Amino acid sequence: MKALMYGWEFPPHILGGLGTASYGLTKGMSLQPDMDITFVMPKPWGDEDTSFLRLIGMCNTPVAWRDVNMEFVNERVGKFMEPQLYFDLRDHIYADFNYMNPNELGCIGFSGRYPDNLLDEINNYSVVAGVIARTIPCDVIHSHDWLTYPAGIHSKQITGKPLVVHVHATDFDRSRGNVNPTVYGIEKDGMDNADHIITVSNLTRNTVIDKYHQDPRKVTTVHNAVEPMSSTITAIQSKKGTKDKVVTFLGRITMQKGPEYFVEAAARVLSKTKNVRFVMAGNGDMMNQMIRLAARRGISDRFHFTGFMKGTQVYEVLKSSDVYVMPSVSEPFGISPLEAMQCGVPTIISKQSGCAEILEKAIKTDYWDIDAMADAMYSIITYPAMYEYLKVEGKNEVDQITWEKAGLKVRNIYNQLINK
User: Fold this and answer.
1) What's the CA gap between 47 and 91, in Å, rounded?
2) CA distance 269 to 381
3) DSSP string, 35-75
4) Cα(263)–Cα(258) distance, integer angstroms
């Protein structure tokens, strides 16, 4: 089974859960003996783990030549390609397309991030997908999140192969309902053209069906999972350095993640006890606002803002925590609570998160119920029996939630599409 996957992030250079999920799913699927995965991303950095898949960068894929009558050896696929000007294929579809001039090798540059001209990069990505689809044999096309849906559609048109779109989030989650019509249009176009849609939770499945008007028979939930801890991560020790209890928020500091509810709940906890510190690990457009809110609540001396964390830094923070909190307003899934529980950290999550559908050994509150959230924090740091129960049973639970199992569900969808 040959899968051509389009993605935007891949560890260790990630800015959110999309890269973590892409890595986990592909690695889990690679355990299937006949699974052959080619993963395409805008810009690899050269230090990605490619032991279980083939990684291709759009930035390294030639799309144009100065002399269209010459032949060009594409070393990445090991054969000659007839010269074609692919950049005409998807001009002016999703953006006011300002074509980036190819370099001397005929390649388009990509930032590898989420730049201000993101729509141009998405369109350029879909253009280069024309080259990829013509040169990489596949049985199924799999597009991760809205940024790669245009590339998936283009590849389906070229190859005639079935298209799976993987909805890791929708703009309804990111915007708290203030949906960007352009983004919504790209999302819906991808879903309309997909042969099957995978969602990361039933919460997201319902959004896809209700807000994007998709046939329920074509939408399947495959919950995310967690990667087994490596020996390097297992060896990480707590760097707490204080006898105070530590309660942690880790993620993008944006309105989707509900950081203000974490700060307000922290203020309530600190009104009862002073032997606790609060950590907000991450970055985002609400960071300065949260710093000011902590100051207004008079808790700045017990609040720590670390900035963006990645790689082993994430596990250093988790292992130094006594409680992990994810108060998301609308979270399609949320892998970080699983990572926290894997580290033996008692966890509090919002009922408005996809992972709440599969986690039983985490405390669940409504994101807006700061009193309930504060009570849960206080109880965990105050009652050792409660702390120990959530620590042990939480780890036992998430150790059974594996990417290998998720990969088998995805493979079953592939098989059904191909047999169909």
Assistant:
1) 32
2) 10
3) -EEEEEES---S-S--SSSEEEEGGGS----S-TTS-EEET
4) 9
What sections of 35-180 are H helices per DSSP?
Answer: 118-135, 149-159, 171-175
What is the CB-side half-sphere exposure of residue 230 using CA atoms within 13 A?
Answer: 6
pLDDT attached to residue 62: 84
Smallest CA-to-CA distance from 322 within 268, 372, 376 is with 376
Cβ atoms of residues 364 and 350 within 8 Å:
yes
Q: Kindly give, in sequence order, each residue whose CB lies less than 8 Å from that of residue 419, ignoring residues fewer than 6 positions away.
A: none
Q: What are phi and psi of 6, to 5 degrees?
A: -110, 130
Q: Which two tokens stand for residue 352?
A: 């408005």
Structure-token match 């504060």, residue found: 374
- Cα 326-270-316 angle, rounded to 5 deg: 45
Let me know: does 196 contact 220? Beta carbons within 8 Å. Answer: yes
Q: How far apart, in whole angstroms, are the C-alpha atoms of residue 27 and residue 402?
A: 11
Cα gap 316→321, rounded to integer Å: 9
Mean pLDDT of 99-105: 64
Q: What is the pLDDT of residues 7-27, one digit of tens each?
A: 999 999 988 789 999 999 999
- Helix or strand run (H / E) with residue 349: strand 347-350
Report residue 74's pLDDT band, with 50, 70 and 90 as the boundaries: very low
Q: How many CA atoms lie within 13 A of 208 on its CB side?
A: 32
Closest CA to 60 of 95, 105, 99, 16: 105
* Residue 256 in tokens: 């989707």
Assess whether pLDDT exceeds 80 at residue 65: no
Spell out the residues 6+ positions from residue 178 whose beta carbon is closer than 8 angstroms to its own: none
Per the listing, tokens 């801890």 go with 229
Q: In what order do the strands lie in the sheet with 2-6?
A: 54-57, 36-41, 2-6, 140-144, 163-167, 196-199, 219-221
Integer CA distances (angstroms), 349 to 171, 239, 262, 335, in order? 21, 24, 11, 11
Residue 276 pairs in a beta bridge with 245
